[in-house]
Amino acid sequence: MSEIVMQIDGKEVKASDGMTVLQAARVAGIHIPTVCHHDKLEPFGGCRMCMVEVEVRGRKSYVVSCLYPVAPDLVVHTRSERVDKIRRVILEELLAHAPNSPELVALAAEYGADRDRFDKDPSFCILCGLCVRYCAEVKQKNAVDFIERGAQRAISFIPEIAAKECWDCQECFAICPTSYAQAAYFLTEALAFPGRRKSAMHGA
Amino acid sequence: MDSGKIDEIIDRHRGKSGDLIHVLMEIQHKNHWLPRDVLHQVAAALEIPFSRVLRVATLYKTFSLTPRGRHEVHVCTGISCHLRGAKQLLESVERATGIRPGETDTAARFSLETGSCLGSCSLGPEIIVDGKHHARMTPEKVEDVLKEYQ
């Protein structure tokens, strides 16, 4: 593995080939906010919160650091007026869907995002894909997946698989930034295999 | 539903997970819709999770998870056809088939869809039935054209 020297926020950072800018920053102790990132999962690039400014040969561009590969002599700025503005707008859009998500509310306070900027569309799911990817990559159960397209896109627990696999796992509930995974699961349980919880609790 | 033909399609792609979209398209064209038990068969034969089959089947507009008619009628409502009377044409098609856009009649003869520009502005107003373009349509001609499709 060849070593790459690059600059993040004015600091010399050593990274190895194949790493992403986000990984290089984390190794160097530089914080970049993320929502859809999870150390155990493949990069997804869904939430766009980790957007940073990179300078290649004097040209600035804005990229998601969780997918952008490191390169020699890359100059990265993790905070700038433009970067902060991009993150603020993304947060305002996500908050229109999940206004009370603790992670989003904390980030909103940091970036001065206005929760009420956009009309509320409380889907509660921000399509970060954490539950979908965790179920597929870590648990390899594929019990929850995206369905539909565009504005109708949503996560859905597949009743046939969820009935068999979810009872003893439910690990995606804790990684969901909005608790919607839990809500979606309980709705599926209520519709597709009701009664199991009751009989488990009462031993009936 | 002709389950023999569907089995034949699925058999041809057995074990090839990359063929998912092709399998679904072939079944969609033969059967006009994708029943859930067929999707289960596809998932098992291609050795991919059922959730991924559903994800793809719900993503593309080509695929229908509800029964569709034997004949697919598209009425162009694009700007050129609109100016040439697509609204009256659509109303006439609705009367002739007894269904509105997005619906299928109970005998599963027709499914009706609109499209904002189907790409033949010089032929408008037009309807497309099973891929065949019928140009310069008038509300009066609709019945005659649809008679051909039983």
Per the CATH scheme, the topology name of the largest domain in chain B is Glutaredoxin
**What number is the mean pLDDT of chain B?**
94
Would you report the number of β strands of chain B?
4
**Total individual domains of chain B:** 2
Most extensive interface between two protein chains, with residue counts? A-B, 13 and 11 residues
3D shape of chain A:
globular
* Main sheet overview of chain B: 4 strands, mixed
Query: Strand order of the main beta sheet of chain A, please?
Result: 2-1-5-3-4
Q: Give the second-level CATH assignment, the architecture of the largest domain in chain A.
A: Roll
The overall pLDDT average of chain A reads 94
N to C succession of SSEs of chain B: HHHHEHHEEEH
What does this structure look like?
The complex is a heterodimer of chains A (204) and B (150). Chain A folds into three domains: 3-78, Ubiquitin-like (UB roll) (Roll); 80-122, no CATH class; 130-202, Alpha-Beta Plaits (2-Layer Sandwich). Chain A has 204 residues and is an alpha+beta fold. The mean pLDDT of chain A is 94. Helices cover 36% and strands 17% of the residues of chain A. In chain A, the strands form two sheets. Chain A has a five-stranded mixed beta sheet, sandwiched between helices. A two-stranded antiparallel sheet of chain A has the order 6-7. The longest helix of chain A has 17 residues, at 81-97. Chain A has helices at 21-27, 81-97, 102-111, 130-138, 159-165, 172-175, 180-192, 196-202; strands at 3-8, 11-16, 51-56, 59-64, 75-77, 144-147, 154-157. Chain B is α+β, with helices and mostly antiparallel strands and 150 residues long. Chain B has two domains: 3-59, no CATH class; 71-147, 3-Layer(aba) Sandwich (Glutaredoxin), CATH 3.40.30.10. Chain B has seven helices and four strands, in the order ααααβααβββα. Chain B has helices spanning 3-12, 20-31, 36-46, 50-59, 79-83, 86-97, 142-147; strands spanning 71-76, 110-115, 127-129, 132-134. A four-stranded mixed beta sheet of chain B has the order 2-1-3-4, with helices on one face. In chain B, strand 3 (127-129) and strand 4 form a beta hairpin. In chain B, helix 1 (3-12) runs antiparallel to helix 2 (20-31). Chain B is elongated. The chains are: A alpha+beta (204), B alpha+beta (150). Chains A and B meet through strand 6 of A and helix 4 of B.
